[in-house]
Design brief:
The protein has 480 residues and is an alpha+beta fold. It folds into 2 domains: 225 residues, ATPase, nucleotide binding domain (Nucleotidyltransferase, domain 5), CATH 3.30.420.40; 209 residues, ATPase, nucleotide binding domain (Nucleotidyltransferase, domain 5, 2-Layer Sandwich), CATH 3.30.420. The strands form 4 sheets. Strands 14-15-13-12-16-17-18 form a 7-stranded mixed β-sheet, sandwiched between helices. Strands 3-2-1-6-11-10 form a 6-stranded mixed β-sheet. The chain has a 3-stranded antiparallel β-sheet with strand order 8-7-9, with helices on one face. The N and C termini lie far apart (47 Å). The relative contact order is 0.13. The structure holds beta-L-fructofuranose. The site of beta-L-fructofuranose (LFR) has 14 residues, from α9 and β13.
């Protein structure tokens, strides 16, 4: 048995998992979980990266004698490092509003279709390319969040490939930073170093990290699939062909794996993106606003003094009238942190639907709406790839939300296989295990271990899809 530590940072919480590699399977135990939420200071949304670092050190201390550590997190955000090697500015959250104007300006210089054709990345305001265009601080290096943590752990700067692909600055043809795009947008490529192949062993932990955590000086830091979605997709326990995945947490990332990108205007307009997978494959997927709508609602209710218990709320929402009111989760108004129930009510009022008042009604509306958005994305996937989707794997925290899994099966008319819920940490550990030679290389060997490590729970559609089809047709923005 070999012990690895998987550090997995999400937009609402971070965790450290001890991964016990036992030949043909990996068992995970959580050693620390700590909250994460963007912090608003003078109108700018920051991440509390130092709070995360403290949580990581605590989790590593509790993990014991790990042979290696890998870090994954949400994509696109970065920390700036000065010439002295220290943090030069606090990382800004991708939901900060500095990006929208930068995106508009950049798209005037390089059209959306050209940008998409060159990089395969859906132009979204939060892409690193637009964040760098909006950046006011100057620095020596920009390190994406997992690379920043990896640098603090090992002293070695890296630009891991799966996460680098999400920046919107990697040329699809070369797999390297696009000097052309950087030149046209006036971005300093000197901030970025060579793209680091996924699974590179960066080196041992720094002595100060070993001292703070009790890790051995020989413990290695591995550049795992550091984009959380890439890590989750690396651990999908596919059981057959023609399966799509939904990596479901703050976001629902709905997609398939492919050998080749799809960069035509239809994919651009349908909101799809082509990110790098752990083995250099393409993760062709669409970002659907996910359980963020629910988690922000819970925060708003608790701030109002309501005593909300999530499991009880979901149990009631399961019994609520279905499809009473639905919203398009991807409507821009839901993107910023804030009072989600109020925004949902405003949307329903504007569209002439019954207004969800109680938390149960709001939760039912959110879950029906997410299931509909999953349906829309799966339909678009089939159309764009020309390949049928027969099964849907839901992985990540959303796999524990039985109601969402059932509604997704109902709305899409496809069986849903739910789990593993810790797909991201599992994928993180699987890629590390391969880098250390504990598991044979390649996706097939990795998926065999993923299958042995977690048995998915199956949800079959309960009835005809018809009501979902007509609910989707209620909105021009929500057509299936
Ligand atoms: C999911 C995720 C998505 C990315 C979004 C923003 O956690 O990494 O893949 O588009 O967060 O970084």
């Amino acid at each position: 048995m070999t012990l690895l530590a998987a550090v997995d940072l999400g937009a609402s919480s971070g965790r450290v998992m001890a991964a016990h590699v036992r030949g043909d399977r990996i068992d995970l135990t959580e050693t620390a979980r700590f909250p994460n939420r963007a912090v608003n200071v003078r109108g700018r949304l920051y991440w509390d990266v130092l709070g995360l670092w403290s949580g990581i050190l605590e989790g590593l201390r509790a993990a014991g004698d790990a042979a290696a550590i890998g870090v994954d997190s949400w994509a696109v955000d970065y920390g700036l490092i000065g010439h002295d090697g220290h943090l030069a500015a606090n990382p800004v959250c991708y939901r900060d509003n500095r990006n929208a104007a930068a995106k508009t300006k950049a798209l005037e210089q390089v059209g959306a279709a050209d940008l998409f054709a060159a990089t395969g990345i859906q132009p979204q305001p939060f892409n690193t390319i637009f964040q760098l265009a909006a950046e006011t601080a100057s620095a020596h290096r920009a390190l994406l969040i997992p690379d920043l943590i990896g640098y603090w752990l090992s002293g070695v700067p890296a630009w891991e490939a799966t996460n680098a692909s999400t920046t919107g600055l990697i040329d699809l043809a070369t797999g390297d930073w696009s000097a052309d795009l950087a030149g046209r947008l006036g971005l300093d490529l000197g901030l970025l170093g060579p793209v680091t192949p996924t699974g590179t062993v960066l080196g041992p932990v720094l002595p100060e990290v070993a001292a703070a955590t009790g890790l051995a000086l020989s413990a290695k830091v591995v550049a795992t699939a550091s984009h959380d979605t890439a890590a989750a997709v690396a651990a999908v326990p596919y059981e057959g062909d023609r399966a799509a995945y939904i990596s479901c947490g703050t976001w629902s990332l709905v997609g398939v794996e492919r050998d080749e990108p799809i960069t035509g205007v239809a994919a651009l307009e349908a909101g799809f993106t082509n990110e790098r997978g752990a083995d250099g494959s393409i993760r062709f997927l669409r970002n659907v606003a996910g359980l963020w709508l629910l988690s922000e609602s819970v925060i708003a209710w608790r701030a109002q003094g309501l005593d909300i218990e999530l499991a009880a709320l979901l149990a009631e929402a399961a019994k609520a009238e279905r499809l009473r009111s639905v919203v398009d989760p991807d409507d821009g108004r839901f993107a910023d942190p804030g009072d989600m129930p109020a925004r949902i009510r405003a949307y329903c009022a504007e569209t002439g639907q019954p207004i969800p008042e109680s938390p149960v009604e709001v939760a039912a509306c959110v879950l029906d709406s997410l299931a509909l958005a999953h349906r829309r994305a799966v339909a678009a996937l089939e159309e764009l790839t020309g390949e049928a989707v027969e099964t849907i794997h839901i992985v990540g925290g959303g796999a524990n939300n039985a109601l969402l899994c059932q509604l997704t099966a109902d709305a899409t008319g496809r069986p849903v296989l739910a789990g593993p819920d810790e797909a991201t940490a599992l994928g993180n550990a699987l890629v590390q295990a391969q880098a250390l030679g504990l598991i044979a290389p390649g996706p097939a060997a990795r998926r065999a271990v993923a299958r042995a490590s977690a048995r998915p729970r199956r949800f079959d559609p309960r009835g005809p899809e018809t009501p979902w089809g007509s609910a989707a047709a209620r909105f021009p923005t929500c057509v299936a």
